[in-house]
Amino acid sequence: MNRIDRALVVDDLAGSRDWLSCALEQAFPGIVVASAATLAGASLHLDPAPPLALIDLGLPDGSGLRLIERLHLLGTLCIVATVFDDDAHLFPALHAGAGGYVLKDQSTGHLADMLSGIAAGQPPLSPSIARRLLRHFQPALPVGGEAALTARETDVLRLIAKGHTVAEVAGLLGLSRHTAAGYVKDVYRKLSVGSRAEATLEATRRGLVG
Fold first, then answer.
1. Averaged pLDDT score across all residues of the chain
2. Who wins on pLDDT, 17 or 210?
3. What is the pLDDT of residue 11?
4. Does residue 123 have a cis peptide bond before it, meaning omega lies within 30 degrees of 0?
5. How do residues 45-87 score in pLDDT, each as one tens digit?
6. pTM above 0.85, yes or no
7. Domain named Response regulatory: which ranges (predicted)?
8. Total domain count, the chain
9. Is 75 helix (H, G, I), strand (E, B) or coil?
10. Assigned domain for 62 exists
11. Were 42 and a residue from 23, 36, 90, 180 both cysteine, which residue would form a disulfide, CB within 3.0 to 4.6 Å?
């Protein structure tokens, strides 16, 4: 890609904007960094479009996905910077055109190292995100003829079978309600069940609940 001499940081938290800007300055000495806290604010920095943008997904005036889609068409390399490490956020971001996905759980130096790899064509990916991508494209191996569930799906099935609501499942597993609902839908689809009662029977048969 072209030389990275400008970047846009979009995050509603001032501390996160400072952290991302600092990492960019370490990775690309002399870079000019613009920042915005909203989609509306970001739109003021798109003419010309920056070569690189670090974008949070949850913004006060909408989803960062909208900005990623727009910038991707303009040739900007968009990197998601977020706290969300689940499939429900990761894959929509990649489909929107994100070229990297980093979590806000690392040091400035570590993030700068990942960003530095862009020049060599290395997509910035947090290790847990890279592992999630690998697992996603590995075929599930059924055991004993049963539909295979991931570890997280098994946890969701166990909690649903114990009578927990989707909101309670989300709280117990540290997920958003939307993400928990997505896991429940995937579990029902894999098990070919259509109700909590059927899911509970399947969980009992698998020995997940007494």
1. 90
2. 17
3. 98
4. no
5. 999 999 999 999 999 999 999 999 999 999 999 999 999 888 8
6. no
7. 6-119
8. 2
9. coil
10. yes
11. 36
Based on the fold, state whether residues 65 and 155 are members of the same structural domain.
no
Considering the domain boundaries, does residue 140 fall inside one?
no
Nearest CA-CA partner of 16 in 42, 52, 49, 55: 55
Contact 93, 68 (CB under 8 A): yes
Which residues, at least 6 apart from 19, have a Cβ–Cβ distance to it below 8 Å?
104, 108, 111
The domain boundary residue, chosen from 135, 159, 189: 135
| 66 and 40 together in one domain | yes
Give residue-wise pLDDT tens across range 133-165: 876 776 554 545 567 889 899 999 999 999 999
Task: Name residue 203's amino acid.
Answer: A
Residue 115 structure tokens: 């960003």
What is the residue whose two structure tokens read 């499939």?
87
Per the listing, tokens 């909203």 go with 38
The span from the first CA to the last CA of the chain, in angstroms, equals: 57
Looking at residue 54, which CATH number applies to its domain? Answer: 3.40.50.2300
- Check whether residue 13 and residue 62 sit in a common domain: yes
> Percent of the chain scored above 70 by pLDDT?
93
155 and 110, same domain (yes or no): no
Residue at 145 is within a domain: no
Is 47 in the same domain as 119?
Answer: yes
DSSP string, 12-69: S-HHHHHHHHHHHHHHSTT-EEEEESSHHHHGGG-SSPPSEEEE-SEETTEEHHHHHH
